[in-house]
Amino acid sequence: MSTVESAQEFASAALSCFDMPAGADVCLVKHRENFVFRVDADGRRFALRIHRFGLRTDAEIAAELDLLRQLAEAGADVPRMVPTRDG
Questions:
Q1: Separation of alpha carbons 35 and 37, rounded Å
Q2: φ and ψ of 75, to 5 deg
Q3: Are 24 and 11 a contacting pair, CB within 8 Å?
Q4: Which string of b and e fits 2-30 if b means at least 16 CB within 10 Å?
Q5: CA-CA 20 to 30 A from 63: which of 34, 46, 56, 79?
Q6: Residue 44 β-bridge partners
Q7: Residue 2 pLDDT exceeds 70
Q8: Paired sense of beta strands 34-41 and 44-51, if any
């Protein structure tokens, strides 16, 4: 995914995986090694990060998510992860 436009389309299409309405507002926040979007849906605000293919392995991403879970369990104020519909 090389363009902001294609990442925006991908982010909008991905909303259904999180049971979010198709008409949710998706706005680019940052584009560096990943694309980060703000999603406003159902009166709530989320961050949606799209990883650049090949930048990190699945194991590295899983380790990052595990670290966030551990920090949250220890009481740290970290973003809460929203799993996809199928986990």
A1: 7
A2: 95, 5
A3: no
A4: eeeeebbeebbebbeeeebeeebebeeee
A5: 46
A6: 41
A7: no
A8: antiparallel
Q: How far apart are the first and last CA of the chain?
A: 24
Pick from 41, 40, 29: nearest CA to 4: 29
Query: Are 32 and 20 contacting, i.e. CB atoms less than 8 angstroms apart?
Result: no
Is the per-residue pLDDT at 60 higher than 90?
A: yes
- For the whole model, what pTM was predicted? 0.79
Task: Look up tokens 């299409």; give the residue.
Answer: 13
For residue 20, give both structure tokens. Answer: 């979010």
